[in-house]
Structures are given as C-alpha cells and as structure tokens.
Design a protein that fits this description.
Blueprint: E1 4-17, E2 20-28, E3 34-36, E4 39-41, H1 48-60, E5 66-77, E6 88-99, E7 112-118, H2 120-126, H3 130-149
Parallel strand pairs: 1-6
Antiparallel strand pairs: 1-2, 1-4, 2-3, 2-7, 5-6
Length: 151
Amino acid sequence: MAGKYRKSVFIVTYHKSENKIFYLILKRKLHWNGWEFPKGGIEEKENPLEAVQRELKEETGATPLKVKKFNFHGSYRYKKLVLDREGIIGQSFSLYAAEIKKQKIKFDEKEHADYKWLAFEEAMKILTHQNQKKSLKIVNNWLTRSERENL
C-alpha cells in the first residue's frame, strides 16, 4: 500500500515535585483507545519546536517551562485507515521532553477522555505502545541522571 508517513513529535511531559518526577499521560479516544503522552503532527511551515509548543497548548493547555530534543526517532504504521488523514499510512516521530507546571490539564475532549500524573513505574505500566515506553525510558534516564548530577 503506497502512502506517506506524517511527521510528528512525541512529547514526554513531566513535572518535578519534592525531588520526584511525575509524567503526564493522556487517555486517547480519537482513532484508537489507550494511554499516551502528548504528541502530534508537524504542520506545514512549522519547525519541530514550534510543533511541540503548539501541541502542548492544544492537548494540555500548558506552556512548557523547558524543552529538550533527544536523538531518538522512529515510525509506525496505523493499524487501520484514518479517515481524516488521506494518503497517510503512519507517522514518523522525533522525541522531545517538556517540563510544565503541575496544573489542571485542559485536554481536547475530541482526542482525549482523561489524564493522569504518574511516577515512572506507573506510567510504564499503562502506556499502550512500545515506542512510547522506550521514549519514556530515554527521558526518565536523562532526568534521573540530571538529578543525581545536581546533588
């Protein structure tokens, strides 16, 4: 099947509180059901950093305090045809981490049904897809290494 991969960003979103790290996980309901972190397509004439900031605002209502790009990329095919993405058979992604304030999340109710702030172990248990679990491990390793170096 011929088709293109939509360029996108994965945004492992976190909040630090009392030497603990909490990750924002969203309950997906549009196109599939499961748990994920914020992510989204890069629009025409938009660079990946702009996409991170826009997607965070759209999916959480938050503005990032810090953003870090990671040298981790991947792609995946959609399990079924996505009607509102004609000619697109999957997504390619670049990994970013974004720190936000812990706040009430204003999620897009068309895309998501709920959210949770979770510690690493709990987030790993409920994330639906392996590429997101791998992304979370990469960010968590970076954050915990950074924390140890700052002691």
